Amino acid sequence: MPSGIRWTVTDRYGNQIYLTEERWVHITEDKNHPEMVDFEDELKDTIRTGKRKQDTLNPQKYRYSKAFDNLAGYNTHIVAIVLYRFRERAGEIIANNYVVTAYQKEIG
Asked: Whole-prediction pTM value?
């Protein structure tokens, strides 16, 4: 796996998904989604147990979402965007699934 990994979790389908330190800093920057800074555990839980939907235009992109009662403002769900990729290591093709972004959203 790439260096700078903050954590790795396994989703309900057995896929390992990681978040890098760089992506976490990007997500929580003031200009992006600073409301996520106190919800890292909920983000992990969203990936572990939330609903997953494949993007219709990019089959390597998945949207994970899960409802929570304690989010900022009127938000009801955490959404994580995960890219499913592959890379080669020592001649072997291995999964390289990572969080691109995450945010909170009100979903009716």
From this structure: 0.91
